[in-house]
Amino acid sequence: MIALPARQIVRWRGWVIGAWAVLALLFVPKAAHVQRVLAVRGMNVEQTESARAAQLIRESFPNPIAEYVAIVVHGPVRYTHPRFAAVIDSAALAQQPYISQVISVRSIGESTFVSPDRQTTFLIAALTPASTTDVSRTVVPELRETVRSTLGRLPHADGFDVKVTGNPALDYDVRTISTADTRDAERRALPLTLAVLVLAFGALVAATLPIIVGVLAITIALGIVAVAAQFQTMSVFVLNITTMVGLGVGIDYSLLIVTRFREELNRGLSPVDAAVRTIQTAGAAVVTSGLTVVVGFAALILTPLTETRSVGVGGLIVVAVAVLLATTFLPGALAILGRDIDRPRWLARMLAWIHTPQGWERWARSLGHHPWRAILGGGLVAALLTSPLTQIKIGLPVRNWFPPDAESGQGLAALREMGASGVIQPLRVVVQLPPGESALSGRRLAGLKPLSDSIARDPRVREVRGVATLRPGMSTLQLAMFYDDPEAVRERYPEFFNAYLSADQRTTLIDVIAADSVSLTGMMDLARHVRGTIARTTRLRGAEMVVGGFAASSLDLQENLLARFPGIVGMILGVTAIMLLIAFRSVLVPLKAVVLNCVSVSAAFGITVLVFQHGYGASLFGLEGPTEAIFVVVPVLVFATVFGLSMDYEVFLLTRVKEVFDKTGRNDHATMEGLSTTASTISFAALIMIIVFGNFAFTRVLAVQFIGFGLAVAVLLDATLIRMVLVPAIMHIAGRWNWWPGVRAPRRDVDETK
Predict the structure, then answer these.
(1) What is the spatial distance between Cα 754 and Cα 751, in angstroms, rounded to a whole number?
(2) Strand spans (E) along 144-295
(3) H/E element holding 332?
(4) Is CB count within 10 Å lower at the N or C end of the chain?
C-alpha cells in the first residue's frame, strides 16, 4: 500500500487545516457562479462530417440560417385575423441586433408554418454569426423578455401564448434546469446523508465531519473547474457529476477515516497517535481507492466529445481534492477533537445496538462454510439482472429528451402537435462544387434534382427543400430554363436564395425535413440513409457533399464514442488491475476485482435498460414513457465513473482482510474478520452513495437521470451482491492463492477446517 507522511501531517495539523480554509475561501466565489462559464452544447473535438457541414454553411453564406430560434404563437383566433397578425408583427424581432432575418407564414406563405386548426403558427428567427457565441447565455433570455414585454403592451393580446424554442433555447433551459436541479438534489441529499452518518457513528460530531469534507470537496473542485473553463470548454454536465461524485466520495472516504480513528482510540491510543495510525492504514486505502477512481475519469479525457472530456477533468479534480481532504484535513481535525467526536454520548448509547457485529459475524461464518452455494446464488441473480442488457439500443431517446416543463420543451411539443417539429431540426446536406462552377447550371441541376427526389422518396421524409425543389413538379430541363437568369430568380425569392444558395452559386444547401412520426433515433437512421444515398450519387462528381444538423452530429458522436469505447474499457481494466497488483502484491485479487466489477456494472446497465428503455417503473422518475433508446454518452460515463467508485469497497474490504492475513497467515479467518469488520462501514458508505446518486435520478434532465440512476444501482449491487457475497465466497475457495505470489503464508487453512 502507499505510504503517506502521517506524522508530518498530524504534527502540522493547524497549518494544514488553515491552508484548506484559505483555499475554500478563495474558491467559494468562483464555485457559486460556475454555471456561467459552462457550455451546454457538446462539441466533437475531432473533425466530423457534421462539423464540416456546419463550417461550410458558416463560410459560404453571408447570413446563414445555421443558428436560429423558433417562436411558437398560439391564439384564440385564426392566424389570418388582424389580432393574430398584430401579435406576429409586434415582436419587431428584425430590429434586434442579434437577429439576421425572420421567416414567417406572412413572409413566405407556406402552409408548413400553420397548424391544421389555423390557430398556431411559428416564426424562424435566424441569429447573427456574432451572437451565436453567447446565444445560450444572454440572447435567449433577452429575446424572451423582448417578446413578452412587447406582447404585454398590445391592447388585444389576451389569450395568446408565445413560446421560444429551438436548439439555443433548449440549451439555455437545460443549463438553468441543471443548475437548479443540482442545488435541489444537494439540499435533499445532505439531511438524509447526515441522518445516515448519525446512525453510522452514533455521534453528531463524528457525523458532521464527513459532511464538511464533502461540501469542501465540491466547493474547491467547482472553483478549480471555473478556472479551467477559461482555458478549455467545460460542459454543464460537469456541474452534476462533480456534485454527485464529490459528495459521494468525500463522505465515503471520510466515513472510512473516522471509523478507523475511533477504532484506534478504542484500542487505547492517544488522539495524535490514533490519527497517525489512521493515515497509515485507512489513509493508504483511501489513496489507493482514489487512484482507481481517477483511472476511470482519466480515460474520459481520451474521448472525442467536450461533455465526456470535461466530466473527466471535473472528476479528476473532485476525487483528487476529496482524497487530499480525507488524508490531511480530516486526520488533523480528528487529532484536535480526540474523544470529542463521540459527543453527545447519550446518542451513542441509544444507537449502540446498530453497531453490534454479531449479525455480520454470523453472515461471514455462513459464507465461509458454504462458499459454493453463495457463488451459485449470487451468479444467478447477476445473470438475471444483466439479461436485459442484450436488448440495449443506443441512440437518442424517443421521448423525455428535452425537459417537458421548460418553455422550450413546451414549444417543441406545440410544434410536434402541428406537425412541424422537423422544421427546426432538419438534416442539412451541403453541396460545394469546384471553384468556378454554379449549382444552377444544367449539368449540376441534373445531379441535384435526382438526389433531392431520391431522398424525398423515403417514407420518413416529409419534405426536401433546395434549389432543385423550389418549384415542385418541374423536370430537370424546366429547372434549367427557370434558372436561366439566376439574378432575376434571386430577386424574386431573396429569403430563399440567401438561405439555400451562396452568392457565388458554388455552394447550395438541401434541407431534409423528417415526418413528425420519426423519432430522434429515427432521425439518426435517416441521416445514415441520406449519407448512403449521397455516396451512390454519380452525377455530382467533383463536388464535396456532407450531411449536418442535430441528428447527423448525434450520429457522428455515437459512432466516434462507440469506436473508442472498447479502448476506454480496456484501459480502465488494465490500469486498475496493475494498480491493485502493485498494492496487494497478488495476481488473483486484481483479476477477481476487475471481473466482478464488470459483473456489477453490466447488471446496473441491465436494470437501466429495463427501467428507462423499456419503461418499467419509468413513471416513478417523472418520465412520460419508455425512452426506447439509451444515449450513447451514458454507458461511457457510467462505466468510467462507477468502475472506480465501486472499486472503493473492494479496496476497503481487501485492505482489512490482508491486514489480518499478514498477522495470522489464516486466509479463512482473515476473510471472515475482514468482512464482519468492514460490512457495516461499507453498507453505510454505499447507502450514502445511493442517496446522493439516487437524488439525481429524479432531476428533469434525462441525461442526468440516466447517469444518477445507473450509478446508484451499480453501487447498490456492488456493495451487496458483489462485496458481501461473491468476493468473500471466492476468497474462501481460493485460499492461499489469493495472496500469491507476494505473500507465502504457512498452510494453516487446512487446520482451520478440522
Answers:
(1) 5
(2) 161-165
(3) helix 330-337
(4) C
Say what the pTM is. 0.81
Query: Which H/E stretch holds residue 259?
Result: helix 237-266
Tell me which residues of the chain have a pLDDT lower than 50.
Answer: 745-754
Distance from C-alpha of 573 to C-alpha of 580, rounded to nearest angstrom: 11
Cell numbers 462501514 label which residue? 681
Nearest Cα to Cα of residue 113 among 102, 101, 99:
102
CA 688 – CA 206 distance, rounded (Å): 15
| Cα–Cα distance measured from residue 462 to residue 422, given in angstroms and rounded to the nearest whole number | 8
- Which cell goes with 537? 450519387
Phi, psi of 161 (to 5 degrees): -125, 130
pLDDT tens for 510-535 read: 989 888 777 788 888 999 999 999 98
Beta-carbon contacts of residue 152 (< 8 Å; ≥ 6 apart): none
Q: What is the mean pLDDT of the chain?
A: 83
All three cell numbers of 15: 497549518
269-278: pLDDT as tens digits: 999 999 999 9
Cell 453510522 -> residue: 200
Please, is 188 exposed, middle or buried when counting C-beta atoms within 10 Å of its C-beta (0-12, 13-18, 19+)? middle
Q: Which residue's C-alpha cell is 425535413?
A: 513
State the angle between helix axes of 13-32 and 330-337 in degrees (0 to 180), rounded to the nearest 10. 130
Q: Which of 496, 495, 513 is nearest to 429 (CA)?
A: 513
Give start and end residues of each alpha helix (H) in 536-587: 550-584
Residue 507, helix vs strand vs coil: strand
For 305, phi and psi rounded to 5 degrees? -115, 140
